[in-house]
Amino acid sequence: MDELIESFINYLIVECGLSRNTILSYSHDLQLFTNFLLSKKISDFNDVRPDTITSFIISEKKRGLSASSISRALVSTRMLYKFQISEGKLQTNPFAVIDSPKLWKRLPIVLSVDKVDSLLSVPDVNTKLGVRNKAILELLYATGARVSEVAAIQMDWVNFEYGYVKCRGKRSKERIVPLGTKAIEAIQNYLQVARPEIKNSQHSPYVFLSKTGKQLRRENIWK
């Protein structure tokens, strides 16, 4: 398992350009999950099952680990699986049937599935700005990222091959966030169909642009 973790960490360093502190956080998260596996006499990531992940969550909650720390550990491990499956080193992803950590957060307002679907259907996808807005909403829903983080996403922060986006939060803290299929499809559609039609889009490093080709600001997203 150490070899797979090491190659994944090297990928984060070389390909993703994450900061040293972010890399250390990912290493710690992966070690946390690995230690749990070893305590259950599991020495191969291929032997992990969905119920193993559930047991990990319960165990860490009993140990007093915060929900945010558990979620971060799961995101890190989920990304390791996606990477190593694409490299042919792992065969199955037990995280495929595990809910995204964002669903465990305590929210001041809980939207029903119908309300979420209604919100996602608001943008007029027959217009370039509607296609953009659809991509933004799918990204917000899939990742639980802040609006300011989505507005700041740059073109080379999105990795469709491994299905993630790099986000930069408060105090420039970086993290990698997995993307769902619908979010990937919506972003790809925006980049292929709508973004090239926006004025001066080829000169901007940002993914989401205003109709004049400037970086879309946080306050504009909610308008």
Q: Which tags fit this structure?
A:
9 helices, hpI Integrase, Chain A, mainly alpha, 2 domains, 51% helix, DNA polymerase, domain 1, 5% strand, 223 residues
What does this molecule look like?
There is one protein chain. The protein is mostly helical. The protein has two domains: about 1-105, DNA polymerase, domain 1; about 115-220, hpI Integrase, Chain A. The protein is about 50% helix and about 5% strand. Helix 2 crosses helix 4 (about 65-85) and helix 6 (about 130-145) runs antiparallel to helix 8. The longest helix is centred in the first third of the chain and has 20 residues, at about 20-40. The radius of gyration is 18 Å and the shape is elongated.
Please give the radius of gyration in angstroms.
18 Å
CATH class of the largest domain: Mainly Alpha
- Shape verdict: elongated
Remind me, CATH topology of the largest domain? hpI Integrase, Chain A
Mean pLDDT: 82
Unreliable stretches? 103-111
Shape-level CATH architecture of the largest domain: Orthogonal Bundle
Portion in beta strands: 5-15%
Kindly state the percentage of residues in helix. 40-55%
Could you tell me the number of beta strands? 3
Number of structural units classed as domains: 2
Distance between the termini: 47 Å
Structural class: mainly alpha
